[in-house]
Write a structure and sequence with these properties.
12 helices; 322 residues; alpha+beta; 9-stranded mixed sheet
Length: 322
């Protein structure tokens, strides 16, 4: 949809996760750049004041050197049944399927509501909550990484394990535990919330999602619902954290509209969204393949040729990625 919008000269506010594959992410970035479009990513934490203040504390060195970052989000769903039912007269099922494989029309695939919606947990349409929910706390991490001065802005190594259902309609990861590292040695940890409850090191894990920055002199945990710091003294420093400042936005949609008018860069631009989404895909690939995944940031590809198949998704005729 983003490719068509860019070619039609449209600016866009696009929800998460960004793409079904890394290839799609990169194509979207290229074409939005080509047509000079304003793009806002719908990970709304960048317009929440306490998230910005927490990350500014980290950027200004108030927790010392960052050594580890922890990210977690709600676990995925298993189950789902596919008892074929008639397609409603007003439902264009062929367009709904789009470029994905033909499949029987059924309630859990197409008509489910809430967190058990089939489009979240069926691998033909998504990679599960690791991206569908994980995009939010991963975007908080990415906001820091983009402004931290690191040359490689996503982890370069991923080693994950997890659970992927072998029965039922839903076939994306329900639990995952990914460990990795940035090029500068900062350690990366990405988990579902149940795994995080025993592994994430500081308060905040009682929430179903969060991003925790651990440094040599303290820690900061941010989430949609609130934030914690290793001391009240550290928290007070957020009133004037220092020279390193982030874009101030208190409404993600308003920020998008303002940038459509001004042609300035929005708070959550496409290049940042692509980096965040790629890190999520690489995490999922490490879980699905059971192998260590190494990312070549210069060539923007997986180093292991056997794992590169996960970068691409086949498309049903007449769809193609152009």
């Amino acid at each position: 949809i983003a490719l068509y919008a860019a070619k039609a000269g449209k600016d866009m506010y696009t929800e998460k996760p960004l793409g079904l594959s890394i290839e799609q992410d990169l194509k979207a970035r290229d074409i939005v750049d080509k047509y000079d479009r304003v793009f806002q990513y719908g990970a709304q934490q960048r317009s929440i004041t306490h998230v910005r203040l927490g990350i500014e504390l980290v950027l200004n060195g108030h927790i010392g050197d960052v050594t580890d970052v922890y990210v977690w989000c709600p676990k995925g769903e298993s189950g789902g049944v596919c008892e074929p039912i008639p397609v409603p007269d007003d439902f264009d099922y062929d367009m709904w399927l789009g470029p994905t494989p033909r499949a029987p029309f059924c309630r859990d695939r197409c008509l489910g509501q809430g967190p058990r919606k089939g489009v979240y947990h069926i691998y033909d349409y998504a990679i599960g909550f690791i991206a569908g929910w994980g995009a939010h706390p991963m975007d908080m991490l990415q906001w820091w990484a983009d402004n931290s001065g690191m040359e490689q802005k996503i982890p370069v190594r991923y080693e994950g394990k997890g659970s992927i259902p072998s029965e039922g309609l839903f076939n994306t990861a329900t639990h995952w535990d990914v460990e990795g590292v940035y090029a500068n040695g900062v350690k990366f940890h990405f988990m579902d919330n149940e795994t995080a409850a025993s592994k994430a090191p500081h308060p905040g894990v009682h929430r179903d999602h969060g991003t925790c920055f651990v440094g040599t002199e303290g820690w900061v945990t941010t989430s949609r619902g609130g934030w914690e710091t290793s001391s009240n003294e550290l928290r007070q420093k957020a009133r004037d954290p220092g020279l390193e400042k982030l874009i101030v936005s208190r409404d993600q949609v308003r920020n998008f509209v303002d940038c459509v008018l001004s042609r300035e860069e929005p708070v959550d631009n496409l290049h940042s969204a692509v980096r965040s989404d790629i890190a999520t895909h690489l995490s999922e690939i490490s879980v699905r393949s059971g192998k260590v995944v190494e990312w070549d940031s210069e060539k923007e590809t997986i180093k292991d040729a056997q794992l590169r198949k996960y970068i691409h998704r086949d498309m049903r005729d007449p769809w193609e990625l152009v």
